[in-house]
């Protein structure tokens, strides 16, 4: 059963920033990469438990998928089953900041 997948405001800003940054050097690739990240996020609707628990946090509801050099950090709402993409974080940035 497919679950709804929603992007938090922070995840939307992250995605927009990633696409904008890539577009400075490779405008033709920027939109495709943004769509790739969104495709991985949407795929969580069918298999939400496939991401690993984020190792920096002690929260079993907080999981991540690694897509190239990016971490798609998400939560599974235990009451509704909805997936919330919390952040899209570049691995070179260190520990994810979930409060932005």
Chain-wise SSE layout:
Blueprint: E1 5-7, H1 9-25, H2 27-43, E2 52-53, E3 62-67, E4 70-76, E5 83-90
Parallel strand pairs: 1-5
Antiparallel strand pairs: 2-3, 3-4, 4-5
How do you describe this structure in short?
By secondary structure, the chain is of the alpha+beta class. It has helices at 9-25, 27-43; strands at 5-7, 52-53, 62-67, 70-76, 83-90. It contains 2 helices and 5 strands; from the N terminus they run βααββββ.
Task: Describe the 3D structure.
By secondary structure, this protein is α+β, with helices and mostly antiparallel strands. The protein has helices at residues 9-25, 27-43, and strands at residues 5-7, 52-53, 62-67, 70-76, 83-90. Helices cover 34% and strands 26% of the residues. Strands 1-5-4-3-2 form a five-stranded mixed sheet. α1 (9-25) packs antiparallel against α2. The N and C termini lie far apart (31 Å). The model has no long low-confidence stretch (mean pLDDT 92).
């Amino acid at each position: 059963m497919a679950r709804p997948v929603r992007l938090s405001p922070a995840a939307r800003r992250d995605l927009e920033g990633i696409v904008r940054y890539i577009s400075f050097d490779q405008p033709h690739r920027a939109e495709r990469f943004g769509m790739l990240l969104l495709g991985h996020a949407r795929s969580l609707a069918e298999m939400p438990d496939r991401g690993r628990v984020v190792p920096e946090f002690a929260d079993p509801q907080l999981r991540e998928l690694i897509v190239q050099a990016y971490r798609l950090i998400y939560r599974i709402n235990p009451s509704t089953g909805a997936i919330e993409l919390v952040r899209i974080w570049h691995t070179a940035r260190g520990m994810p900041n979930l409060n932005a």
